[in-house]
Specification:
With about 425 residues, this protein is α+β, with helices and mostly antiparallel strands. Among the domains are: about 5-120 and about 165-220, no CATH class; about 325-410, no CATH class. It has 15 helices and eleven strands. The strands form three sheets. The protein has a four-stranded mixed sheet, with no helix packed on it. Strands 6-7-3-8 form a four-stranded antiparallel sheet, with helices on both faces. Helix 1 runs parallel beside helix 5 (about 100-115) and helix 2 (about 30-40) crosses helix 5 (about 100-115).
């Protein structure tokens, strides 16, 4: 009987200690064709310059060739093209661009891994998982802080997580559930694939998995499942004097404690635990804070997934946990909109206004939560003023007065940002 993803998921759920064999054989033409349907078609070309569109034009032939290479074990991971994209803080984020061949096979393998480990992952993990999202993590965190009596927060940042995952540890973790040397060897090929920098130099990584690889998210979750989540659940929590809770989205996590002594102990041992797995915390971004309804105010706030959390009072003077767009996130969004408007001011409005509207809706769909209306309004006013300024600099004559400018916004249906009515917004973060 042919192995399917559903049968794998059922087996993994009913047999928590089972180690799967013969998974490599699933990578046949039918499975890769299904995997193609799940692939991100907007991804950039890899080192061979072959785009998704070009690959698709000969898809049956490419899948047949790929299947044959996998069958006779001649498939080899290609070099990875590294590019850098600017971050809001002025730094650059490295991205690794695999070839379409590698993307397609990685998509298939990642589906296999996902269906196995999805049965093992704990509920506190929200990143890169079915029916999970950054927004659900934010919602869960707020509810727990509001009603469960937590008084201390450890906000942590893992320094260069994707670049520092230890390959030996990762392979040992994968072996907890996989007893298939061919599949494990394939994954190891991707981990060890050479990376070509923009200057033409090649580097063979000793650790990490490139951000941008299709398989990287599930590997990251598997790594932190063993290095952090299980350790917290099975070792840390039983030793606590009070309640403790960890919520994680990929490598971004916060931990809440009922008592200060528990928070302090965790804060001290966390670096040692991460160091065991080749990881370290960023000291400037890792903090222990008092966070209690009895100590309200913005000075005791913390940030998670683009939101600032702090205790305040509602209309009835009762304590409430509020969430605003984090100041750095708001400032970065303002800068991004300003630069985009300035750069595109000379293009026809029929081209730019629909794009601007989509950008604004993307921000609203993620940050349009209750309590955040002031920050949404602030960004709306800023974008309107920036647009008015740069449209009126397109020529020596003023293009718009405020009345005609408002009419133009109405024509393109660009409205002020407001609290979204969607229960699960699209992730902006």
């Amino acid at each position: 009987m042919k192995t399917t993803l559903l049968s794998i998921a059922i087996k993994a759920y009913t047999h928590p200690k089972h180690r799967f064999q013969n998974l490599y054989g699933m990578l046949d033409a039918e499975f890769l064709t299904q995997s193609w349907g799940q692939l991100n078609k907007q991804a950039a070309a890899g080192i061979d310059g072959i785009s998704i569109a070009k690959y698709k034009s000969k898809l049956p032939e490419n899948i047949q060739r790929l299947t044959q290479q996998l069958r006779n074990k001649s498939f080899r991971a290609n070099d990875i093209k590294r590019v850098f994209i600017p971050k809001a803080n002025g730094k650059q984020r490295p991205l690794g661009l695999p070839t379409v061949d590698d993307k397609l096979v990685q998509q298939g393998v990642s589906q296999i891994l996902q269906n196995i480990w999805e049965q093992d992952f704990l509920p506190n993990s929200y990143g890169y998982r079915p029916n999970k999202s950054a927004h659900k993590a934010v919602h869960s965190l707020r509810l727990n802080l509001q009603f469960k009596g937590y008084g201390y927060i450890v906000e942590a940042d893992i320094k260069g997580f994707f670049d520092n995952m230890n390959h030996d540890w990762l392979m040992r973790m994968l072996e907890q559930r996989i007893d298939d040397k061919s599949l494990l060897g394939l994954i190891k090929q991707w981990l060890k694939a050479r990376i070509k920098s923009p200057d033409g130099c090649f580097n063979k990584p000793e650790s990490g998995t490139p951000q941008g690889g299709v398989i990287s998210p599930v590997l990251a979750n598997i790594y932190l499942h063993y290095a952090l989540d299980l350790w917290f659940e099975k070792t840390v929590k039983p030793r606590m004097k009070g309640r403790a809770m960890l919520i994680r989205y990929a490598d971004d996590f916060v931990v809440a404690f009922q008592y200060g002594i528990d928070a302090d102990n965790f804060y001290r041992v966390l670096p040692k635990r991460l160091n065991k797995f080749g990881l370290s915390v960023a000291p400037e971004k890792t903090h222990l804070k008092r966070f209690s309804r009895f100590h309200p105010g913005r000075k005791r706030s913390f940030q998670f997934l683009g939101f600032e959390f702090y205790w305040s009072l509602d209309a009835n003077r009762k304590p409430i946990v509020r969430r605003y767009t984090a100041p750095k996130k708001l400032k970065a969004a303002m800068s991004e909109f300003y630069q985009w408007i300035k750069f595109n001011r000379s293009r026809p409005l029929k081209e730019t206004m629909p794009i601007l509207k989509r950008k604004l809706m993307g921000f609203q769909n993620y940050f349009g939560l209750p309590d955040n209306s002031r920050r949404l309004s602030r960004l709306s006013h800023y974008v309107s003023r920036s647009l008015y300024k740069w449209l009126n600099r397109r020529s020596q004559r003023r293009s718009y007065n405020w009345s005609s400018f408002t009419d133009m916004l109405g024509y393109f249906k660009i409205e002020p940002l407001k609290v979204s009515k969607r229960s699960i917004p699209v992730d902006w973060y």
